[in-house]
Amino acid sequence: MPQNQKRSHASRVRDLGQAAKSRAARIRKIKVSQGGLAIGVILLATFIGAFLVWRAPAGQQQEPADIRFFQIVTGSTAGTYFPVAETIAAIISQPPGSERCNEQDRCGVPGLLAAVKSSQGSTANVRALAAGRADAAFVQADIADWAYRGQAMFAGEKVEPLRAIAALYPEAVQLVTAKSAKIRSVEDLRGRRVSIDSAGSGTQADALLILRAFGLKAEDLRVEEIGVSNAADRLIAGTLDAFFLISGTPSTVVTDLADRGLVDIVPISGPPVDELLESSAFFVSHTIDAETYAGIGEIATISVKALFVTTTRADAGLIYDITAALWRPGNRPHIDKGHEKGRLIQLETALDGISIPLHPGAVRFYSQAGRL
User: d(Cα 318, Cα 278) in Å, to the nearest integer?
Assistant: First the structure.
């Protein structure tokens, strides 16, 4: 590269780095709070873009105006959605200035820069999509179903434009009980002190469906409506017998309780569950492997999938490209290494537990891949 071109390239990289720092300083001051959705902006994508421009030859660079931004809302930074979404955002991004990739390389959508935001979770994410405040989201399959049909917490507010891109990994329904309570089955919850999670949560709606399948109503239990952290504290204090939790396994809360020898996990299986699987397409049979939690053997239960969703507003060509990038063989190692749940994100199960329509762009990809 001629000396003057080297200086030009170095100057441009320096300017971009300064612009990124300036933008970071501005965005740190921003806190978006709309409709109860508190969102912290993640700046990783900005610095990825700056890095890619730095490493690209000057002749391959494009103007910043060519960038297409794609915003994904997830969940708490302490949860699973957020880091998994970071991995996916990284592999589908290929902003202007990136090096051209070969078939075996990590390769995203040309010109795309995906950014990840934290949020209050699935329900808030659906409402952010409905309001046009995000391009895509991670959402529990059951909540996506209720939103699309206008049921449960979405009664009277159908989100008919909601569309699926892929099912990612299972989130297990875990009925965690105090070892001292000697609860062996769902039926044993009758008369016990049980948390079904916070009012309006997906966990509570699922817990009520499960109880109903086993012939129990909320009135048959001493119900508490508290979040999982409070439920764990109450169980340790001896003022709660059990709580429902839906999460990827292992859950840090349950791991802590199991390490202290305080809990059992009750199976959710049998004929009542078989009927539930028939009536609720978003539930999937699931097994929690032995020793996922210390001292606890294999547990048969059910799960809901974490879905990658968007809306009908998203361009079909873009969603096709994003879906293709998600399942591109060269991107596989990055998914596997990005988060422990990455190994469960597989093309073979990409349509499991989805009960809402696929986006047309995703339909095109899965049809070509022989999955439909």
Answer: 34
Instruction: For tokens 């931004």, name the residue.
Output: 69
d(CA 210, CA 291): 25
Q: What DSSP string runs through 186-224?
A: GGGGTTSEEE--STT-HHHHHHHHHHHHTT--GGGSEEE
Token duo for residue 134: 């995000």
Ordered by start, the domain boundaries in the chain are 3-169+306-368, 171-304
Of the candidates 252, 213, 249, which has an alpha carbon nearest to the alpha carbon of residue 229? Answer: 252
Q: Which pLDDT belongs to residue 144?
A: 97
Mind listing the pLDDT tens digit for each residue in 267-297? 999 999 999 999 998 999 999 999 999 999 9
Q: Token pair of 149, please?
A: 């049909």
Please state which CATH number belongs to domain 3-169+306-368. Answer: 3.40.190.10
Amino acid at 351: L
| pLDDT in the model for residue 83 | 92
Dump the DSSP string for 96-121.
TTPPP--TTS---EETEEEEEE--S-
Global pTM reads 0.76
What are 194-226's pLDDT values in tens digits? 999 988 788 898 999 999 999 999 999 999 999
Backbone angles phi, psi at 198, to 5 degrees: -65, 150
Q: Say yes or no: domain 171-304 is CATH 3.40.930.10.
A: no
CB-hemisphere CA count at 13 Å for 121? 15
CA angle 27, 24, 128 (to 5 degrees): 40
The residues, any chain, with a CB within 8 Å of residue 263's CB and separated by 6 or more, are 176, 177, 178, 179, 235, 254, 257, 293, 296
Tokens of 169: 């990994």
Q: Are 206 and 246 in contact (CB under 8 A)?
A: yes
How far apart, in whole angstroms, are the C-alpha atoms of residue 159 and residue 310? 11
Tell me which amino acid residue 44 is: L
pLDDT one-digit tens code per residue, 119-161: 888 999 999 999 999 999 999 999 999 999 999 899 999 999 9
Q: Do domains 3-169+306-368 and 171-304 have the same CATH topology?
A: yes
The DSSP symbol for 338 reads H
